[in-house]
Structures are given as C-alpha cells and as structure tokens.
Amino acid sequence: MSATESDKSAANDSGMAAKNPGKRRRALLIVASVFILGGLIWFLLWTFVFSTRQKTDNAYVGGNQVAISAQVPGTVVAILADDTQHVDAGQILVKLDSTDAKVRLQQARSALAQAVREVRQQTSSASGADARVNASRVDLDKAEADLKRHLPLLAAHAESPEIVQHLRDGVAQARAALAAAEAQAGAAHAAIEGTEIAQNPAVLQARANFSAAWIAAQRNAIYAPVSGYVAQRSVQLGNSVQPGQQLMSVIPLHDLWIDANFKESQLRHIRIGQPASVVSDLYGSDVTYHGKVIGIGAGTGSVFSLLPAQNATGNWIKVVQRVTVRIALDNRELDRHPLRVGLSAAVTVDIRNDKGGVLAGTPTKPPVAQTDVYEQMASQAGAEADRIIRANLPHAAAVN
Fold it and tell me: Of 103, 93, 104, which is closest to residue 69 (Cα–Cα)?
C-alpha cells in the first residue's frame, strides 16, 4: 500500500470515530425513552387497571346437590329417571314394592272408620243415659209425692206405719237409682263431652294413624323435591333399600354460584357486594358472566380439611393460604349459557369500591332452598282422612 492510500484510510477512520459518539447518544436516548414509556404505561395500567381488580383462576362452579334417598324400607320395582335426564319437582323417580304398605293402610282406614262409629255409639249411649236420668228423676218425684200424700194419713192414724215405711224405702231406692243413673250419664259424657265426633280424641288418634299409614304408602314412590338433572344414579331394580340410603342426586342448574379461592394477600380490598366477572373454561372468553360477591369464607381450606395442618409443631412451613369467596351469578345468563357443577373458571373482582362489609350482616329471611312436595303429601293425607270421617258420620252431621 502506498503512502497516499494509507493517509486516506487513516483520515476515513478518524472521520467515522468523530461521528460514532452522536449515534451512540441517539441510541441510548431511544432505549431510555422506550424504558421510560414502558414504565409510564405500566404505572398507568397498575393505577387504573391492575390495582382496581383481583383475579384468580382457582375458581369452580358450585351448586346444590340434592340427595335422593328412601324414607321407608322396600324393594325397588321401577326406576323412572336416569343420569343426565331432566326431572321436575314432584316427579316420581323410583318406586318401591307397596304391598305391605297397602295392607297397613287398609287396616288404618278400617280403624279410623271404626273409631268414628264407636264415638257415634258413645254419643247415643250418653243420650240413653240422659234419658235414664230423666226417668229416674220422675220415679223419685213420684215416690216423694206418694210419701207426702200418706204422711198426713199416718198422723191421723188412718194409715198403717208399715205402708208409710214402705213408701219411705221407695223414695230411698228412687234416689239411689237417680244417683246411679247420673253417674252412668257422667261416665258416658266423659268420653264425648266438649268435642264433636270428628274432634274426639279417639277419632283424632285413629286419624293420625291413618295419616301416617297413608304417607308411608305414598313414600313407596320416591319423588324429586326440586327440578334439575339426575346424576350419580346408583339404585338398581330389585335393590332392598333402607331409609336414608342415597339412590341418586338431582342437580338444579339454575341457581349456581362460583367459589373463587383467593390468596389471603388478595382479600385486603375484597368486599361483599362488589361486582365480578367470570369466564368459564367451558365457553372460554366468548362468554362472560356477571355476578357479585355475596360472602367470604369463615376460614381457609386447610382448616376445614379432613386432616388440618398442625402448625404448632416444630417442622412448620409457612404456606400461603386461600379463602373461598362466593360469587352469585345471573340466572338469565345461566339460562342462555348453562354451566355444570364443578367446572373451572377465572374470576375478576372489581375492588374499586372497598367500603362494603367483609362479613355477612343479618341472616337472610327467605330460605336458601325449599320444597313443598312433602307438604302436599301431608295435606292429601288429611283430605283423605276427612273423607273417611264424613263417610261414617250420620247424614245430617256429614252434610254440616
């Protein structure tokens, strides 16, 4: 390389070196601007978005699981509902052999009719006893009148003392007969006094026995207490079941909720009444449910576990605990997009308004869940008992 070329190369290197510091400053300025902008964006996101909500994906759909069990012993003769099928409240799910129950019901029916007729007989006996009292009183009045008529004759020595003594004995006998008749009438009235035939204690006892037999016979048909979907059917034809034995479950899918398990550090600003959004894994982000916080659990999951942790021991290890937050869902949204009990979900709670309560206030007045299926059964038993009583009353009393 010639001397001239070497000089030109050195000049070019010195010119590039003079320009590089400016490029470096611009590059550093761009990088710093990016970091500052990113930090500003993060600060704004945290201030207006992340700090106003708490999220967890440890959440599951909850719902009532109504256990269907037998109330009387028996043998299964029919199964009228199977898993995944929808049933209505009051629908028969399982039938048991009712032969023995029908026999006991017929016995109770006859006993009730007999009790009504016996009270009618007692009423007639009491009326007869009253008539005997009246007759005895007439006999006493007659005997006293005869004695009163003969006493002046005795004083005038116109009547023998034997006849007058006989009359006195007759009065004493009449009084004794009246006392006996009154005692019999009192005993007869004691069984029926103060009540009508239908309200007589003997009739009420027979009526209660009939109602019990009638309800026991009806319980050979096992009804659905609520509307829902059948799950966990374990009963089979021919099974001999006992009272309390679970046969299947009915799951209502209308009034569902979400049990969201938040970390203890996330509960600081969660309050009852705050709005929440729920995304189920079943539908993904395409469907969002809107609910609200209705309660916060009274303890952590470890406390309520089968084997609670013994943190007082020497090998204690701190573990972040979770507390269940219950979120009510909108039934209209559930009707459009049904969920299933146990499905997982992601929950976001809006915590901007943290002035609400942490614990529930006064107890709720309406029941959490209820059914009138069994009340209808009892009312039907009462109506049938009344029909039997009317059928065995005198025609005039039955009409009244």
Answer: 93
Would you state the structure tokens that stand for residue 370, as one six-digit string?
A: 């209820």
Q: How far apart are the C-alpha atoms of 119 and 202, rounded to whole Å?
A: 8
Per-position DSSP letters for 54-89, written without gaps between them: EEEEEEEEE---EEEE-SS-EEEEEE---TT-EE-T
- What is the distance between the alpha carbons of residues 256 and 63, in angstroms, rounded to a whole number? 5
Is residue 165 in some structural domain? yes
Q: 340 and 261, same structural domain?
A: yes
Q: How far is Cα 57 from Cα 5, in angstroms, rounded to an integer?
A: 71
Distance in angstroms (rounded) separating the CA atoms of residues 160 and 142: 20
The mean pLDDT value for 205-213 works out to 93
The answer to whether the beta carbons of residues 262 and 301 sit under 8 Å apart is no
Q: Model-level pTM greater than 0.85?
A: no
Look at the chain and report how many structural domains it folds into: 3
Domain boundary, last residue among 201, 217, 249: 201
How do residues 143-174 score in pLDDT, each as one tens digit?
777 667 656 665 655 556 676 677 677 778 77
What average pLDDT does this structure show over 255-267? 92
What domain range includes position 148?
Answer: 100-201
**More confidently predicted of 245 and 147:** 245
Q: How far apart are CA 220 and CA 372, in angstroms?
A: 18
Residue 332, class by beta-carbon neighbours within 10 Å (0-12 exposed, 13-18 middle, 19+ buried)? exposed
**For the segment 216-227, what is each residue's pLDDT rounded down to a tens digit?**
999 999 999 999
Cα separation, 198 vs 362, in Å, equals 45
> Where do runs of H (alpha helix) occur along the chain?
3-48, 99-155, 161-190, 201-218, 331-336, 373-391, 395-399
Helices 99-155 and 201-218, interaxial angle, to 10°? 180
User: How many angstroms separate the CA atoms of 79 and 43, rounded?
Assistant: 63
Per-chain mean pLDDT for the chain: 82
